[in-house]
Amino acid sequence: MNAPIRQTILFDLDDTLIHCNKYFNLVIDQFVDAMRTWFHAYPDMTEAAIRRKQVEIDIAGVQATGFKSDHFPQSFLDTYVDFTRLTGRPEDSNEIDLLWSMGQSVYEQEAEPYPDMEETLLRLKDEGHDLHLYTGGEPEIQRRKVDRLRLDRYFGDKIYIRQHKNIAALEQILAEGHFDRHNTWMIGNSIRTDVVPALTAGIHAIHMEAQTEWEYNNISIEVAPQGAFLQLHHLRDVPDGIQRYILGH
Fold first, then answer.
1. pLDDT-wise least confident of 50-54, 65-69, 209-213
2. Residue 208: which of 9, 51, 3 has the closest Cα?
3. How far apart are the C-alpha atoms of 247 and 105, rounded to whole Å?
4. Among residues 109, 94, 101, which one has the least CA distance to residue 76?
5. How far is 35 from 117, CA to CA, in rounded Å?
6. pLDDT in tens, 89-108
């Protein structure tokens, strides 16, 4: 194959390059177990009911003010309070403290790369592509992940952290950086925050399908691609997917 035309590639971080959902799911499991233990005398307190309420509250917080770390532990507390009011069971300050600590513990996990992360980024860099990292969350937390995995080796200072990761945020990055949209790609697992904003902005998109996805990320795609729209399961398939599209157009 001929060398591919140089592309500008924006990568999402959480659940695209590194694991994230699995840690949240583990902590949610701990939360549900604690709630089922405390509210065992109330038959309406099913696992499904607890999970449904926690997700509802968590997503509402993100929609209101973006990706703030307090949303997740607060969703535990608000779910707990909701069920104490529903059942009449008294609130316990020790239980509240435990739930807050439990929710915060997810941010203390090590940054674990997805399979083939290093090899994929190195290949794309060696092929001459311009790599950028675009992630949602609080700067301190996201920067810690970047530093732990030394991702500046691939992205340098081209790292964008936004509390609100949406169409407006991506448009601002593209406009301020004077990106050539015909040769720019967004790669991420979230249809809501990666794929739809990319397609709306008229750049190429690659959806990295996750094994388990956060409900917030799953929305319908109602915008037609102006360029490429690929759906892949493995990071190692990204370079060839981009190259095939370029050579075919």
1. 209-213
2. 9
3. 46
4. 101
5. 37
6. 999 999 999 999 999 999 98
215 and 236 in a common domain:
yes
Show Cβ contacts of residue 230 under 8 Å, excluding neighbours closer than 6 positions.
Answer: 204, 205, 206, 207, 241, 245
Mean pLDDT of the region 202-221: 88
Give the Cβ contact number of residue 43 at 10 Å.
7
Rounded to whole angstroms, how far apart are CA atoms 181 and 202?
7
pLDDT tens digits, 3-57: 568 999 999 999 999 999 999 999 999 999 999 999 999 988 899 999 999 999 9
Task: Evaluate if pTM is beyond 0.85.
Answer: yes
Domain-ending residue, one of 56, 86, 108: 108
β 204-208/184-188 pair status: parallel
How much is the average pLDDT of 145-173? 95
Using CB atoms within 10 Å of the CB of residue 155, give its burial: 0 to 12 exposed, 13 to 18 middle, 19+ buried: buried
Amino acid residing at 2: N
Token pair of 181 as six digits: 């949209």
What residue type is assigned to position 195 of the chain?
V
| Residue 104 domain boundaries | 22-108
Task: Tell me the C-alpha distance between 49 and 45, whole Å.
Answer: 6
Residue 243 and residue 197 share a domain:
yes
- What lies within 8 Å, CB to CB, of 34 at 6+ separation is 95, 98, 99, 102
Average pLDDT value over all residues in the chain: 93
Is residue 243 within 8 A of residue 4, CB to CB? The reply is yes
